[in-house]
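Lecture notes, unit on protein representations.

Consider one protein chain, 118 amino acids long.
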Amino acid sequence: MHAAVLPAFNPARRRVLIDRLLSDPAVGYAVSEAAVSRSVPRQIVLREAERYVREIVPAFNAYANFWVGYPLAQRCAEFMYRVRLGYVDDAALAALDFRYWPVNTGLRFSMKARRPSM
């Protein structure tokens, strides 16, 4: 098995990472072996390898995704799915008998403290 070594995180552009991986001697050797064993031209196997490399090299910046995108998505989800109750029927809620409910119904009563909007 051949392994190409790439840095864990490098702010280089995606095309640079793709070219670096495709020009790695281990990848070139594997492409040549595959072309000989399958009896096809090396260019066809190289095109397939490039397709696979494009799949595994991320097309996004992981730093931006996890440090900016995640909190932004969380705020959007909290805004869109914020539940507001205008009326609570305490008597009806108190009359519910939870002893006869199946264990895994997924019904949860929870409250989350919210900071006041500015």
